[in-house]
UniProtKB/TrEMBL annotation:
Residues 148-201 are annotated as: Domain III. This is Holliday junction branch migration complex subunit RuvA. NCBIfam families: ruvA. The RuvA-RuvB-RuvC complex processes Holliday junction (HJ) DNA during genetic recombination and DNA repair, while the RuvA-RuvB complex plays an important role in the rescue of blocked DNA replication forks via replication fork reversal (RFR). RuvA specifically binds to HJ cruciform DNA, conferring on it an open structure. The RuvB hexamer acts as an ATP-dependent pump, pulling dsDNA into and through the RuvAB complex. HJ branch migration allows RuvC to scan DNA until it finds its consensus sequence, where it cleaves and resolves the cruciform DNA. Coiled coil: none annotated. Keywords: ATP-binding, Cytoplasm, DNA damage, DNA recombination, DNA repair, DNA-binding, Helicase, Hydrolase, Nucleotide-binding. The keyword DNA repair applies. Belongs to the RuvA family.
Length: 201
């Protein structure tokens, strides 16, 4: 089990980063907000989870250990794989997700692409008690965030939302709503959080 990686950001995409450790570049899948907050040359420590499949080894990384723990916990429910687990954390964050599960808030859970009513009910049934005892806010080293000075953020945020499971129209509409109210020169991660908030309404 690879519990964490510490190294230098070599590349950052919309939902993944490459962390260079001892001269080896590790591809780490992460939430769009974490990826957007990472830039080349940052020193970073990510809490990680290694997903082993018959034909692949996939590393997922998180800025906090509670994100990583929640990622692994929700996958204990039948039908929830790494992609949906990552989408849940991208949309809600670990604390909001734990609160929704504890309160039986299936409506909040169904705002995540790929989670229907039955899946939400199953998540609550199986995890309500389990998440109540989970620790909160153990933070790993957070990379810096870059300000965005042009409208280039629109395409990046829309692409990240589509990657999480929304269709292009839903993503585009959310981006346009954010563009009306968002401050100029904000960080990409801030635009993404606002768009996710719009999609949860």
């Amino acid at each position: 089990m690879i519990a964490s990686v510490t190294g230098t950001i070599g590349q950052a995409g919309l939902d993944r980063v490459t962390v260079v450790v001892g001269g080896v570049g590790l591809l780490v899948h992460t939430t769009p907000a974490a990826a957007a907050a990472s830039h080349r040359g940052d020193e970073v420590t990510l809490a990680t989870s290694l997903v082993v499949r018959e034909d692949s080894l996939t590393l997922f990384g998180f800025l906090t250990t509670d994100e990583r723990d929640m990622f692994e916990t929700v996958q204990s429910v039948s039908g929830v794989g790494p992609r949906i687990a990552l989408a849940m954390l991208s949309v809600m964050g670990p604390d909001d997700l734990a609160a929704a599960l504890s309160a039986g808030d299936t409506k909040a859970l169904t705002t995540v692409p790929g989670i229907g009513v039955k899946s939400a009910q199953r998540l609550v049934l199986e995890l309500k008690d389990k998440v109540a005892g989970m620790p909160r806010a153990t933070t790993a080293t957070t990379p810096g965030s870059a300000a965005v000075t042009t409208d280039g953020w629109r395409d990046q945020v829309a692409e990240a939302l589509v990657g999480l499971g929304w269709n292009a129209k839903q993503a585009g509409d959310a981006v346009e709503r954010v563009a009306v109210t968002a401050p100029a020169d904000a960080e990409i991660a801030a635009y993404l959080r606002l768009a996710l908030r719009e999609l949860r309404r």
